[in-house]
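Notebook, student rotation project (T.W.).
Task set for the rotation: take a protein with a known small-molecule partner, predict the structure of the complex, and write up what can be learned from the model alone. Partner molecule chosen: fe (ii) ion. Sequence and SMILES entered below by T.W., checked by me.
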Amino acid sequence: VLVVCVVFGVGSARAHENVEKLRHWEIPSKDPDRIILTFNGDPATSRAVTWRTDATIEKAVAQIAEATVNSKFQDHSVSEDAVTEPFDLGLYKSNASLIVHYHSVIFDQLKPDTVYVYRVGDGDARWSEWIQFRTACAEYAPTQFIYFGDAQNDVLAHWSRVIRQAHQTAPNASFVVHAGDLINQAHRDYEWAQWFKAGGFLHSQCTAIPVVGNHEFTPLGGKKSPRRSK
Ligand SMILES: [Fe+2]
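Predicted structure of the complex:
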């Protein structure tokens, strides 16, 4: 019993040190964060959503309903079980050694040109807010979208202004193209945390088309990270 306690104690201390180095908005928890809505197939009838929690959340769900003018849509929401995948941030040496869980759900058989409301969570007490999006029209229709070039550097300090102003300029944009490079050093979780803090609620409601750039690809070990560049 003594041996087990000692080993457990060392493990806890390491985990604690890992978290100590992180900003509070980088730390995964039981609550969903880093929620991003993307396309999956026909934009008139489907969407995909992905989010993150800490490793204690092993089963996750998303709920979806047609929006109503009040909160009654909740009575008609449908639950979809998520696919849950563990990911070890510590595979990249400058990250804290944390296992996080990524969850994903595909919404399909949606009605075209319809406002839907969804939320993600553990199916019990840990939920995101309800988030709205509109499906595309089934036929040709004028549409508006936002295009971002490389966000890449100083994403929280400066790109936050750009994405927020873009949303004010085109609040009804149907989708957002994020041309790579989204961040500068591919596996550095701190930079992804910045990307989500800069525009998190927009990533969850404005369907994203993330396009990978060369800075989204770096060998996990050995070679130098790409320099701050274009
Ligand atoms: Fe770039």
